[in-house]
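ESCALATION

Customer reports they have been waiting on this structure for their group meeting. Please prioritize. Original submission:
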Amino acid sequence: WTWHSKGMADEARGDMDSAEASFERSVSLDPYNPRFWDSKGSAQESRGDQVGALQSFRRSYELDPTSIYPLIHMAGIFRDRGHGQDALRCVDQAISRSRSRDLDIMKMSILADMGRHTDAVSYGLSVLEKGPDTEVSIMVATFQMDVLNDPRSAVITLDRALVSDPPCGGRCPFRGFAGGHRLITWVRCIGCHGYR
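Update from on-call: job pushed to the front of the queue and completed.
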């Protein structure tokens, strides 16, 4: 653990070359520790070595297939490299192990990057069926409005979010304002309370 601790200290100082070398040393001393592989992968990713990072995260996942940490990083790298199917596979595996809004948003973003905006909206709406979420609602409505050219559905999505999860607790003076153009109302409600 000494080399790993040194690598963490190097990383905290921003010395990624030294951090990677320390993590490499920790991996060579204990090649069966998935945390060491995660740390090495993170350092490689920070330095722009996506191929090396993928190898490290894959090794970490082989050693501990219950961890979502390497899956999330691999999904991000695959997404950055334009490998949408691989990114989607990784994020789906992570979601199957741990539900979180961040993973849901990542999946919607990956689908959108792949040009699958209708699938992103469908997935987002399925997430919203499980419970309100302002950020997911905004993302779904944005796709509905800007990409699918469906402002009516966008307003419905945002109205449902405002009713079930109002950022202002339902006390916004702008609610119901603007003669029924509730999309503007909703944006004002979010804006007046610092949600952007």
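Sent to customer with the following note: Confidence is low (pLDDT under 50) at residues 173-186, 188-196.
Escalation resolved.
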